[in-house]
Amino acid sequence: MNPHVTNAKLEPPSNWDRSGLPYWTYFNEELFELEAEELFRKHWQIACHTSDIPKKGSYITFDLVGERALIIRDDENEIRAFHNVCRHRGSRVLDTSEGRCKSVIRCPFHGWSYNLDGSLRGAAKANSFPALEHRKWGLKPLEMEIWRGFVFIRFKPGPQPSVANLLDRLEDEVSRYNHVELLQTAPIDCSSSGNVNWKSIRDVDNEGYHVARAHPSLNDLYGKNYYDEPFVNGVSRSIAPFNEGSGKLWSVIHYKKMIDQFTSPHNELPRAWLYIGIFPNFVLGFYPDVVTFYQEIPFSVKETAIRSSTYKRADENRTMRLARYLSERIDATAIAEDWHLSIMWNEGMKSSANTGIILSDLEYGVRTHHDALREILPVMNHEIEPTRGTLLERNNSAQNLPPNKA
Ligand code: FES
Ligand SMILES: [Fe+2]
Hints:
This protein has about 400 residues and is of the alpha+beta class. It is built from ten helices and 18 strands. The strands form four sheets. Strands 11, 12, 13, 14, 15, 16, 17 and 18 form an eight-stranded antiparallel β-sheet that branches. Strands 4-3-2-5 form a four-stranded antiparallel β-sheet, with no helix packed on it. Mean pLDDT is about 95; it is low at about 1-5.
């Protein structure tokens, strides 16, 4: 057993409710609107790593449930976050997902320009407007927090504490990865999407029970040792110490060989993959060779994309680069397998034969994620789908009822 890895076992209580969310919650468009408002706009979202925007004027953008975020490094090297919404008529001011502005942000619609600190520099044909105060008509700022090199934003105030506070109990464990100093390996990717509700993807990701059967490469790497801790205060931890021995699959054998050749200080990192789940929709992954994130981006109740990126160590050498190549290969296989499982799980809910599920103790993380969802949106306790137009009212009237009694 790896001496650096500890499992703080958090067992499910006896007689815990092993049923999942009612299936209607995966297909209901009114509920999706509530999720957009109460979950996605009001909870922290990972935006990028500081290394994604390394120079003055470097930026990334991303959209989520109708909102648009813009993270940019200004002239003073400060990182700033804004709504990517022009103050003239609401166009995107930057319409690529990453890039660099020289010294000005210029809206592609009518050409209003903004300084890198968000203030209005000038309207095109300014004399066709009354006088515009440059601060007042600047880009609207977004709430932002940088935690150990990662940039988080929130579209609206919400129930979570600061990111630092949220992740406080894991600070010691993850600080050894020194992720302030990481470097971008490629632009953040948001190109894979599928016809699946975002919760079905999260349900698959929130348990490791399926690893042994569904992920041959992960099973070869760590299958016997994988352990999920449930969500506690909106954060989960899953730890996957590598199996003893050399492995069976080519990529796993060579990945472990590379890891064994790491030198100080990287050989002091745990021989394990560590995943930190952050409610409601993203995960940070800490591996000996890389740090990574992945995040569900719902486009609608039935279509979701995954936004993800991988970061390397600033002092990466050839061995570490090879290890990174191999871990990306192992991960890519698992991601494709998980897409397939998520779609099968989502589709299976429509079958008349599928009248309910039973969760294993090894799937307790799924339940704790559902509990967190129910706490914010108690209408999810209703076994029967509310009739059209009544969902909001039923959610509000259920606010004060205990779980499963709404
Ligand atoms: S919408 Fe941006 S300049 Fe008109
Ligand atoms: Fe999986």
